[in-house]
């Protein structure tokens, strides 16, 4: 399916979040590209069922801000027939500026819920300082967001993972997990009652960084895992950056490769019947 770019010429006809955005050609191209990539993912992976209610995870980082803005932009244009509820999980991290997200969401007229759960103490109490917090922190956060989604009558939890997140996860599984797996754009939770959606699966992290800067989102850094050096994911990120620098365009080819698998050319006997392969 060919996704046509939206008309951005009518500045008055936009969500309040976009009222003060740059009007230059470069930003318009960036915005159109992100919207196009998001719509393509929504279409390719059948993420949308009209009339549903989505819980949009908002951490305060560039990716989740970008996700929320793009979904609101599409909804404003009549291209996303679902209800959106933004949700921030305040995890009790030291020096977390509690006012930033509520102020931002209220100023832009965005329906939201702020949920406080002290997962910080749990994570730091169970994991040594020289080990990575990300896995446990992520599981705890995901569990609370699923709970909130159920309480709010949402059918899906929507997260801001982008193209690089998917590729980094693929490489981590390849080098450390001994399996071919990444982050799927659409995933049914273990309980079978909620979908996890990733509409930014085709969006480049570099584009989201530029978008966040142009939109002047009030970014909140993560003081938990963001302060740890030597994480496996950072190593994968550096590897991908080096590959892209040496061979521009490789990331785009890699993300396409994840949608173009050939079981007969791999070694997994569970998905291809090598024993039943005989000559005619």
Automatic annotation (TrEMBL):
Domain tRNA(Ile)-lysidine/2-thiocytidine synthase N-terminal: 54-234
The protein's required cofactors: Mg(2+); [4Fe-4S] cluster
GO CC list: cytoplasm
PANTHER family listed in its UniProt record: AMINOTRAN_5 DOMAIN-CONTAINING PROTEIN, SULFURTRANSFERASE-RELATED
Family that this chain belongs to: Belongs to the TtcA family.
Function text: Catalyzes the ATP-dependent 2-thiolation of cytidine in position 32 of tRNA, to form 2-thiocytidine (s(2)C32). The sulfur atoms are provided by the cysteine/cysteine desulfurase (IscS) system.
Designated name of the protein: tRNA-cytidine(32) 2-sulfurtransferase
Gene: ttcA
